[in-house]
């Protein structure tokens, strides 16, 4: 069995809505979980005009700003792929980490496959909400970031900036993972 060293990468996206192939990923932020100063951030041009007002309001982004300032999806995904390739040591595996990872991974996977041709994360992601549920035995309802914050007391907060949120998620992951390790020792 190939047991390669895993490099956890916290990834966050901001989108125009929840439907992967119809709504646009407008920003993408990522950082190494254990070295958050190793980071990546980009804005993307929209792939459609479809949007949900609440999704845009949360981010403060507009389709016009993204169209003006963003990279095309192929350019953005190539840059993200190159960042991963340039920063992951040889022989290591990048692991996608997200808070509600199915949502963020869905967009990243779609964009990688459609606009780049492959996804360096493969076909799975590590979900912080599920990790927290396993670590604490809480209910699914109690895996909201506000509930997690009350247990692990992170220094950072989410603010819907993709890179800031990736760094916040990285801190949550480290704190929750420490909970898991401490419970194994007891």
Mean pLDDT value: 94
User: Topology as H/E string?
Assistant: EEEHHHEHEHHH
CATH architecture label name: 2-Layer Sandwich
> In what range is the share of β-strand residues?
15-25%
Helix share, percent: 40-55%
CA radius of gyration is 16 Å
Query: Residue ranges: pLDDT <50 for 5 or more in a row?
Result: none
**What is the count of DSSP helices, taking H or I runs of 4+ residues?**
7
Can you tell me the CATH superfamily?
Answer: Ribonuclease H-like superfamily/Ribonuclease H
- Please state how the strands of the largest beta sheet are arranged side by side: 3-2-1-4-5
Class per helix and strand makeup: alpha/beta
Query: Per CATH, what is the topology?
Result: Nucleotidyltransferase, domain 5
- Sum up the overall morphology in one term: globular
Tell me the count of domains.
1
Through-space gap between termini: 30 Å
Number of strands: 5
Largest sheet data: 5 strands, mixed
- What's the level 1 CATH class? Alpha Beta
């Amino acid at each position: 069995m190939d047991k390669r060293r895993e490099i956890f990468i916290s990834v966050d996206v901001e989108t125009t809505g929840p439907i992967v192939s119809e709504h646009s990923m407008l920003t993408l932020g990522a950082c190494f979980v254990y070295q958050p100063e190793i980071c990546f951030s980009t804005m993307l041009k929209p792939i459609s005009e479809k949007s949900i007002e609440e999704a845009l309001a949360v981010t403060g982004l507009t389709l016009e700003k993204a169209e003006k300032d963003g990279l095309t999806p192929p350019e953005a995904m190539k840059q993200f792929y190159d960042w991963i390739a340039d920063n992951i040591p040889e022989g290591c595996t990048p692991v996608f980490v997200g808070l509600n990872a199915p949502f963020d991974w869905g967009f990243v996977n779609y964009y990688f496959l459609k606009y780049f041709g492959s996804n360096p994360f493969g076909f799975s992601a590590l979900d912080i909400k599920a990790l927290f549920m396993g670590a604490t035995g809480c209910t699914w309802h109690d895996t909201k970031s506000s509930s997690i914050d009350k247990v692990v007391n992170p220094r950072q907060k989410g603010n819907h900036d993709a890179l800031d949120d990736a760094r916040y998620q990285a801190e949550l992951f480290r704190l929750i993972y420490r909970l898991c390790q401490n419970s194994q020792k007891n």
